[in-house]
Amino acid sequence: MCGIVGFTGQRAASGILLAGLRKLEYRGYDSAGIALDAGNGGSLSVLRRPGQIAFLEDAMDLPDSNMPQSATCGIGHTRWATHGPPTEQNAHPHTSQNGLFAIVHNGIIENYAQIRSILSAKGYVFRSDTDSEVIAHLIEDAYKGDFEEAVSMMLEQVQGTYGILALSSLHPGTLIAVRKGSPITVGICRNETLIASDVSAIIGHTDQVIFLDDDDILVATPEDFHITAWKTGPVSRPTTTVDWEPGAIEKGGHPHFMLKEIYEQPEAIENTLRGRLIEADGTSKLAGMQMDARELANIDRFCIAACGTSYYAGLVGKLYLEAFADLPVDVQQAAEFRDRNPIIQRNTCMLAISQSGETADTLAALREAARKGATTLGICNVVGSTIAREAGRGVYLHAGPEIGVASTKAFSCQVTVLAMLAILLGRGRRLGREAGQTMVKQLADLPDICRRVIDASDTIRRVAARYTEMHSCFYLGRGYMFPVALEGALKLKEISYIHAEGYHAAELKHGPIALLDKSVPVVALAPDTPGVEKTLANMQECRARSAPVLAVVTAGRRHGADCADDWIEIPPCPAFLTPIPATIAMQLLAYHIADLRGCPIDKPRNLAKSVTVE
Ligand code: AGP
What we know:
By secondary structure, the chain is an alpha/beta fold. The chain folds into three domains: 3-247, Aminohydrolase, N-terminal nucleophile (Ntn) domain (Glutamine Phosphoribosylpyrophosphate, subunit 1, domain 1); 251-453, 3-Layer(aba) Sandwich (Rossmann fold); 457-596, Rossmann fold, CATH 3.40.50. Helices cover 35% and strands 23% of the residues. It contains 19 helices and 27 strands. An eight-stranded antiparallel β-sheet has the order 3-2-4-1-10-9-11-15, with helices on one face. The chain has a seven-stranded antiparallel β-sheet with strand order 5-6-7-8-12-13-14. The chain starts with a strand and ends in an 18-residue tail after the last helix. Residues 307-310, 354-356, 359, 362, 405-407, 494, 610-611 line the site of 2-deoxy-2-amino glucitol-6-phosphate.
């Protein structure tokens, strides 16, 4: 998820673009750049910097920046890397070979490798590792004098999702925007037009905006603009008056980044799955693994090391890899893994799971495994992060930035990747094609199941209101629900400051049940998964000690009124995928309890988003 912004008008563009990028920095912040058209028909002026937008601003101010401060047309970009690490040459804008066209892109061009080969054979020289660069070269290659026509021909070639802004020194003052899957908002002002990936960069200039639809092509000049539905013809889109407070806009209208990121999970999972499910063969395609079938077949054991929420995702991964790929898996908290002198055999594969890709304990565990000769893989969200780079290969989540300290969408996307990994490895072993196809179809349906959990947010808030005063509670689960119990307890602890303990449902009676009374509620994870009937019995044991029970169950399966005091229902779901909707319900429960308690959700006390110290 990147931030893109464009301006054409009578005012100087650079300051407007930089201010817009600052408003979009929450969307991605590993590198930034702008391109300006001085209006002299020569090459465009481009300035890019890795790191925060402040570094780009500093560079702009240097006398030798050679950026035309009087230019009135330009585009800008703040990057959330998906292909290629965060470096200057991978930063946007990308220019065509002749330097006369520049583009910024938000999204993923799925067939960029094929396009790159074709263009390279035609003599185009690529200067970045990104998928986006192909867009600039395609426009140059198609250009015969008509800028809009060249952009339209580029669209014939690319597959994937995109919000693209393009400008050309051959057409001074003209900006072209196209949208497919990644939002584009157009700010309508007198004698100028602003274009951005979301309204936060436009508010302050105008409250009159147009939201492009998929396959719309907008051509804007300072005086006017028109919209064409690609391959169809001219269209008009309604103008909307935006009355959001700027602060809320970065959170997508939500009060907190955490809630925004909870709500983003269906889309984030879709991005994680995008281009990676091969239904015809009942398998997945994880190109980042860089391992052929033989190498995959040679793996005879997995070690998984991670921390916090990522560790709990690893526990789900263990269940998948053992069940579907017949592989033994050892999952350890990263610090423990590193300190206990792990056993690494010749065909052991070490998997480091980390949203930030910078967690010191996980990095130390990865290095220890590598020192002992393990094949190392990383499952990370931040492209080019240290763990991703040092693992050398692995799978990116493509979940977009996770700002809230409490991890939410990262967990769901990590588990989604682990399911695809288990299917891939399983299909090289005893998992048959039809069984694989069934699982692939079930994965493809997962985002809609998650949407239905999110739709129940208000109901969950009403239940949460009855648990805001508790001082301690237990989360119980078994099988697929045991990691969910651990993760649900962590969510509650870290944002509401209520003590919560995730426990195996069968283990409670071996001691901790002594703690139960009417002041210690139990959250029982009892959706339709293997072993649920035993968990129901555990719930009766809790109720017999007067502990209030909040049951998480499959919709319509409350197992009787005497089973619990409150219920949270989740949609029916294949057992192996139930950890994700169940965890989303736990995220919402924790969020609403913390919000009702007036806690600072996005930045809880004592916590950091990435623990880069051991
Ligand atoms: C989870 O909500 C916490 N923020 C924390 O436990 C986190 O999961 C842990 O620090 C690991 O972070 P990582 O995934 O970036 O490595």
